[in-house]
Design brief:
311 residues; alpha+beta; Ribosomal Protein S5, domain 2; Alpha-Beta Plaits; 10 helices; 12 strands; binds cytidine-5'-monophosphate
Length: 311
């Protein structure tokens, strides 16, 4: 008898996102350092008869049809493992949407992990990553979480030492979102002359690019140094387009954040602190400087896990 599963699906921030070249599949060659944070959606899966897939979400702007990544994850699993049945997916949305925090990717990762459990498939982490990569570039990371180096499209993962002593204040205007394809397309229009053009040049950028200092700081688990080496190429296209995002970044800097950066394709900006009290103070300072009810400010902690089974 199959029963229901409830999973925790953490958001991610990018400590580094470097665009180093084009790929034949139309995507970009990336070097990223991804970090899970404690802000998480809760995803519940219940078995259904037949091959029905139903999706419910308490956030009015989340589509509940086949365009939702969580729905597509369930469909992919049904195609791979026919006859296992249907599923009702209920998403309790805590991660801001269209934010650069991989909320949709995290939900899809939770569906993959949850159906593996519900259907007793015993998939390995590598098999889960393969299915995840078919759905989106960030989804393999969302499955395993923690701190990781991500190469290729973002799906080639190497786990890194945990950085679970840092706090991130996340700030995002609710009414503002950035379409990831727009951010990458605009970057290509403006900066493609800087792309590496052959495998040797790509490898050199991977080995000698912006990630060198950050990876060294992470390997020493140096929480003071890590925030000094944050990097995100997509800031070059998103910040000029959205000055209010630049403003948040400047404010975090003036409040003495250990580091501040836009996450992914934005528009969420995060400021880092080494204690909860400092993070909460920074959140209050930001709220006071920008008393706009449209601005969502969340205090969260780095976490070392991806999808977790709650019950
Ligand atoms: O893989 P995912 O669906 O998250 O990617 C969203 C969009 O971001 C892609 O359609 C593409 O425009 C862009 N992208 C890219 N290179 C990557 C990852 C994403 O150009 N490595």
């Amino acid at each position: 008898m199959m029963h229901a599963y409830t999973l925790k699906a953490p958001a991610k921030i990018n400590l580094l996102l470097e665009i180093i070249g084009d790929r034949p599949d139309g995507f970009h060659e990336l070097v990223m350092v991804m970090q899970s944070v404690n802000l998480a959606d809760i995803v519940e899966l219940q078995p259904l008869s037949g091959d029905r897939i139903e999706l419910f979400c308490n956030h009015p702007q989340v589509p509940c049809d086949q365009s939702n990544l969580a729905h597509r994850a369930a469909r992919l699993m049904q195609e791979q493992f026919p006859g296992k049945g249907g599923v009702a997916i209920t998403i309790d949305k805590k991660i801001p949407i269209g934010a650069g925090l991989a909320g949709g990717s995290a939900d899809a990762a939770a569906v993959l992990v949850g159906l593996d459990l519900m259907w007793g498939l015993g998939l390995t982490q590598a098999e889960l990553h393969t299915y995840a990569a078919k759905l989106g570039s960030d989804i393999p990371f969302c499955v395993s979480g923690g701190t990781a180096l991500a190469l290729g499209r973002g799906e080639e993962l190497t786990p890194l030492p945990d950085l679970d002593q840092l706090y991130a204040v996340l700030a995002k205007y609710r009414s503002l979102s950035v379409a990831t394809p727009w951010a990458y397309k605009t970057y290509r229009q403006q900066f493609s002359e800087s792309y590496a053009r052959d495998p040797e040049a790509l490898e050199k950028r991977r080995r000698e690019g912006h990630s060198v200092e950050l990876l060294a700081a992470i390997s020493h688990r140096d929480s003071q140094k890590v925030p000094q080496y944050l990097y995100n190429d997509l800031e070059k296209v998103v910040l000029p387009e959205h000055p209010q995002v630049q403003e948040i970044r400047d404010l975090f800097q003036s409040f003495g954040a250990l580091g501040t950066m836009m996450s992914g394709s934005g528009p969420t900006v995060f400021g880092l602190a080494d204690s909860r009290s400092k993070a909460e103070l920074m959140a209050t300072q930001l709220q006071t400087a920008l008393p706009d009810p449209d601005l969502e400010i969340l205090v969260t902690k780095f976490c070392s896990s991806g999808i977790q089974l709650l019950s």
